[in-house]
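Figure caption, in words: inputs first, then the predicted bound structure.
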Amino acid sequence: MQQISNHMPTAELQALDAAHHMHPFTQNDGLAKKGARIITRANGVTLTDSEGHEILDGMAGLWCVNIGYGRKEMATVAARQMNELPFYNTFFQTSHVPAIALAARIAELAPGDLNHVFFAGSGSEANDTNIRMVRHYWALKGQPERKVIISRKNAYHGSSMGSGSLGGMAGMHAQGGMPIPDIAHIDQPYWYMEGGEMTPEEFGLERARQLEAKILELGAERVAAFIGEPIQGAGGVIVPPATYWPEIQRICDKYNILLIADEVICGFGRTGNWFGSQTMGIKPHIMTIAKGLSSGYAPIGGSVVCDEIAHTIAQDEFNHGYTYSGHPVCAAVALENLRIIEEEGIIDHVRDVAHPYLAERWHALNDHPLVGDTALVGLMGSLALTPDKGKRARFASEAGTAGYITRERCFANNLVMRHVGDRMIISPPLVITPAQIDTLIERATKAFDEAYTQIKAEGLLKAA
Ligand SMILES: *Cc1c(COP(=O)(O)O)cnc(C)c1O
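Bound structure (pyridoxal-5'-phosphate present):
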């Protein structure tokens, strides 16, 4: 086996990558021709690639590196835990200190009586747990027919069979036999593109009331739970109108439907509170957590469960679990991450410094001829690209064409910003400073200028 290292020429690494590595959510033939960008190291908010470019990571990896890259304490804790107890399971009436300490700490941070944690290795696994847990809960309550979980179109809840079915991504459902039975989807609260002539407030109510209509259509006695991201992330950072969540809450309460808040992105400071449910005024029975739980330094997720469900589930053997549920190294790393967030006042930094500063500069991008709408909650933001600012217009070109051009210009200007269709999104590390925000905005502005020129030159500046 040859030694593969950071010092190999980029082209050789790309060739090996193309030959052997199947990338997620990627057309691998296309990538093979182009060559993957090879990231070699990172520090703070900055990535370095194999060509020596220093790139500002406006996405915190995949929405997860909340404390920023390169924190030595995290490596120290991981090494210490590996030396002490690298693995033990939690299945056979055994436990270990990292899992105990992390569960207790999460219970302390979580609102209300969300006092119990079922660990998973990822957000997808945790949402699969949730499907089985809420259905089993109702079975134990003598209502086994309560099986249906209602979600939203264009939601993202993960990529396994269960979590991908909960999600509402049409492109995912088109492959591999999803959704599984007894999952229903209502429309998303995306006012900018789907609100028509309604005010955002009217539209928020209209979309929330689809939940009530769906419950009545299915029969309330068949509905187990509703699941939603407090703010949709991968769907394009879609911030619901203020009327939406209170109405969803009212409907769930009225019909005794369990409410699952998927906090995988919103949790751990992203929205300026520990959890997005607090920011959006939601009282969930279960929260899904992952990503920012460990700031991505180790793979770990979980379901944070209220007293009533946990106590009910506890009466029976729950035939469910993952080898790595509560993995000691991941749990120790997550605990250290939570310590850093707390002790360094990172959530206060989001709320009092980074959000207000970014908000001013982000919303000013609305003046750009290519931008038709900006949104920012905490440090998750999005903006709509549009060929006609006045009219909330879509591009005539296939959705994502303008977005892709713009994302490529961002990369060329050493900025990672993603596109979802023709919406550009950011979710930087929570430790980003005002000076780094200035850099982000400068690079974004230059990229948007270049994208605008290119979109115009290619004749794509046309409304649908
Ligand atoms: C990323 C994500 C997931 C899936 O988490 P994985 O760790 O990738 O399995 C679930 N829900 C939301 C809201 C996410 O953003």
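Residues 122-124, 127, 156-158, 229, 233-234, 262, 264-265, 290-291, 301 surround pyridoxal-5'-phosphate (CB under 6 Å).
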